[in-house]
Amino acid sequence: MMKNIKTTLLLLLMVQLLVNDVYAQKQPITLVEQGSFTVGGSVKTSPGTFDPVAHGAFNPSNQATEGQTLHGDHATVFYQIPDSAKKLPLVFWHGYGQSMRTWQTTPDGREGFQTLFLRRNFPIYLIDQPRRGLSGRSTEPTTISAATDDQLWFGIFRLGTGSTFYPDVQFSEDPEALNQFFRQITPDTGPLNINLNIEAVSTLFDKIGPGVLVTHSHSGGQGWLTALKNGNIKGIASYEPGSNFVFPEGEVPETIHYVGGALSARSVPMTEFNRLTEIPIVIYYGDYIPNEPVAHPGQEQWRAALQMAKLWTATVNKHGGDATLVHLPEKGLKGNTHFPMSDLNNEKVAVLLAEWLKEKGLDKK
Amino acid sequence: MMKNIKTTLLLLLMVQLLVNDVYAQKQPITLVEQGSFTVGGSVKTSPGTFDPVAHGAFNPSNQATEGQTLHGDHATVFYQIPDSAKKLPLVFWHGYGQSMRTWQTTPDGREGFQTLFLRRNFPIYLIDQPRRGLSGRSTEPTTISAATDDQLWFGIFRLGTGSTFYPDVQFSEDPEALNQFFRQITPDTGPLNINLNIEAVSTLFDKIGPGVLVTHSHSGGQGWLTALKNGNIKGIASYEPGSNFVFPEGEVPETIHYVGGALSARSVPMTEFNRLTEIPIVIYYGDYIPNEPVAHPGQEQWRAALQMAKLWTATVNKHGGDATLVHLPEKGLKGNTHFPMSDLNNEKVAVLLAEWLKEKGLDKK
């Protein structure tokens, strides 16, 4: 009898949680403001004088450049401020080959972190870094090869190997989901220059004030470097940081060699490094990352990154910092790709981040 | 005495209108949904077999392409559905060198059409056409020159001549506004192909159903061509269409020659043309467009476009259509550039569009 009552209560609770969850998804979102702007960038000027009469017609094959400028190398930002907003916004910075689309609708058509965290009352800022996506103008030329490389990214982004999904991967089997995922990729429109990126994102934090930086993959390392120079970054959550780990001089670990490449760390003076011990930091890695060397470079790269991230968090904490490394499978979240923020279980991934933000006092109103 | 009362009442009314206006700007916006997705596009496949072990590491200087695909040539769409939404969404399509940024925050930091029409309860869809902005993946390669050309666009976009603003232009004198305006520009990431663009936007209307297309400049002509093939386009508002005007066979006007170029029209069978007589269409042009030839190509191009648009609306209407050409200065809106949707008086420009939508029954709930 008691057992039946307990079971019934448990079932009722589960139904209630399910209803709450569906209800939360369907609730309208109230915005007090939204908009877009660019930050950072540079201006290139060609010598001479511009003649608007002689050279004022568009001539794609032979445009006169004398005396003209080009504004480029900026970041583009789209932001939304919800009602009853938390004090600190979340600033989302995409990874390599990606744009602000990373944080929007998932490949299978559900809400991404942009909307999931608006629902949690965080102001959100989405970045397209310089020379990518909406920030297309570059002061340096480039060639876009249009080379076929979807299957390369399928492997590096850890959906699977070749064209075969990993078993139980948190990615929809609907072919349209993979179609949307591939179309999220967008090329560099100028030479990749992380100093430009860091400068632009730092300028963003100068403009908006204190906030929490959320990075992914290639922006992970750039995020540490940005935090070194900007005190307005009050916390960092990093999904699968891949490179540019920053260690104090004399404490830089050896390069980690793996099938397909090598991962080295950066060195900075201890006085600079200390900045990273002053803010709470959390790092998340997904599934299918081996402990020992394997043959597939798409997995190997992340074996090295996870290993380096472990050394890094230990170093940060040794110097009084507050860095947490979360390997999602160890938290019971299995099957995550390199994109936990848009995987099928992204709501659970969001809950982990929300709990961390609360624990660190970064979610106050 | 009567006169004083009248004056007082008039003043009170004016204050009330001002308060309403400010109030409208500050009201929160309630969204029932927002998100992003891609439409259209193609898949390029390289012959051979992809070997994820041998070729699974990222090698920017020599990537193996064998057996790999590339998903490209799609359009990217960001959408928002407000509470108490109108039935027909507004689908915003940018012009040459532009992206969805055209419809977002204005260069001087005010609300653009995205938010102004959300406030009027229209669902909004913003497009980045194939090979531009967030839709960066192209199946064909290209080179981006990074040539200095800001002053060329300053002229063609009719802010002024050279670097000198037109007198009384509806553009902020704050240098930061011009900085933001230039940084809105974003290059093609593949060869421009209007057939791809039309296909992608038509696929969007297949997906979302009936709606109103809002075009700008280069998308104006592409918009007519898209409407020819998709019956879900229930109306078109076109800001400063520049090319690809479509006439029935045998009624194509002569090419209009102007300083810096020539504008020709397209010919389609009458059976196809008739489609453009079945939907309400409105076209808007701004200020600084001369009636007679002048020396500056930046103005000349729009003299030709306006002249062609007059011939075009007359032809549409002769065949039973409902096309309206609005030259904004004749409506009392002076000083508009090639970007009326983001000029200083863009709220007034929005009112004109809202009134037209209402008049044509396109704003029903």
From TrEMBL, chains A, B:
Recorded GO terms, molecular function?
hydrolase activity
| Stored SUPFAM superfamilies | alpha/beta-Hydrolases
User: Record keywords: Nucleotide-binding included?
Assistant: no
Keyword Hydrolase in annotation: yes
Which terms are listed as keywords in the entry?
Hydrolase
Which InterPro entries did the record assign? AB_hydrolase_fold (IPR029058), Carboxylesterase_BioH (IPR050228)
This chain belongs to which protein, by name?
A: Alpha/beta hydrolase
- Native organism is Maribacter cobaltidurans
